[in-house]
Amino acid sequence: MLSLSGIEKSFGGRTVLAGLGLEVSAGESVALVGANGCGKTTTLGCIVGLVRPDRGRILIGGVDVAQDPSGARRSVTYLPQRPAFPPTLTVRETIAVVARLRGLPVRTVDREIEECGLTGLADRNVGRLSGGERQRLAMAVAFLPAVDLYIFDEPSANLDPTASRLLFQRARQLKRDGHALLFTTHIPADVRHLATRVALLRGGRIESDASGQFELRRAERMLEREMWGTDHEDSIRGPMDDRGGDCRADGDRLLAQGACAAAASGRSR
After folding, report:
1. Beta strands in 222-269 (DSSP E)
2. Fold held by 1-75+147-211
3. Were 31 and a residue from 161, 173, 195, 247 both cysteine, which residue would form a disulfide, CB within 3.0 to 4.6 Å?
4. Which CB contacts under 8 angstroms, 24+ apart, belong to 224-230?
5. Which pLDDT tens digit goes with each residue over 208-239?
């Protein structure tokens, strides 16, 4: 569904992406994680055509983004980290504009207004929305078309628990229906609820790309440590699965002990 190979991008002499490669298949939900400034948003921008890579190739559903950007965009929708909409349009008008551009019927506008909890805000100007309400509007716009690939940049940022639950439910349904998802996050719950794989971006490349319960839990722990700092390490020690076993932090790694280590070792054979 999505293929990135040899992607390079520099800004003002600073290399952000250095030969990045990544594959996302239909039915997968891949979390792209890494430190601030490592190139996560730049990677997404390259995929959706907002950033032009210096080198490399990106295919969406077999369509080359550089050679046929319009054709590639028809298969993807993008939820940005900081959505920007015309402040004088209402919520309903904003969604309706996107629906017309996508060639979608009016009923899809009403559907997303209801499903994203925007009924009471439908006639409010975008400029009067709170940050969380604006993010919910962006979520409605992103879910509006039925496409092959969904790209989310920090999807649960600024969402309240109700909206986050809605996001997780919709995203999981998309995955079950065979759509592909790629998202960035710093939030452990996003990995727990959405990811089937985790790709760690470091030094402009994918340093690790893993799936499975142990690896996903390891990524979640890493994000917890990033969020709470090393003072949180004592609190993240605990059972990793129902069979017992602990983990402890060691720099950028989490070391498994006991039954969990044995399980991880068994999966690697």
Report:
1. 247-250, 253-256
2. Rossmann fold (3.40.50)
3. 195
4. 224/188, 225/249, 226/35, 226/186, 227/186, 227/187, 227/188
5. 887 766 667 777 777 777 665 655 455 444 44
